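USER:
Make up one protein:

ASSISTANT:
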Amino acid sequence: MNFHEVRFPTNLSFGAVGGPERRTDIVTLSNGYEERNTPWQHSRRRFDAGMGLRSLDDVEAVVAFFEARQGQMYGFRWKDWSDYKSATPKRAVSADDQVLGMGDEAETVFQLVKNYRSGTVTYARPIKKPVAGTVLVGISGEPQLEGVDYEVDVETGLVTFNHPPDFQAEVTAGYEFDVPVRFDTDGIFTSMASFQAGEVPDIPVVEVRV
């Protein structure tokens, strides 16, 4: 896949506007009722990191990053400052943040997920780009040791155990993560506000499936 395992500069993505979007097909029937359906199992996120007045070094960094990705050609990692870890915003990451599944004494590979709950409904979002060194894993409340009990693929979000978890053992994890995105444009337009500063009004990015 056309993807570079490099993160957009976090100091430049801070303050970006964006969030999840869904696609819903709605048909209004003759009696006024609606039929609603979605072809998307998972949401997709969009962001705009357009910058106001910034230093010329910041503007140059954005242009260099854009050129290295060849516009929309190559995807990259993006830190969504509003949603970048398994724990709630004010809590530190811990090994029991998210339930990945239950052991069956056979399965050794589990996908990192983040569960979003509202009332009785839960949406499980696959996490494909965890941040290296941040993933903590537990089995039935017992912390596991990376490199001894399990391995994490930071390019896919797969956790692989050396031995399958016991039957009905709860597999949990905590982590920080990035969003896989690409630029949603093949053109970046800059403006020089002065000899000391410039701006890039629009930097649209969109999540990609990996």
Remarks:
- The chain has a mean pLDDT of 93.
- The two ends are 8 Å apart (CA to CA).
- The longest strand covers residues 113-118.
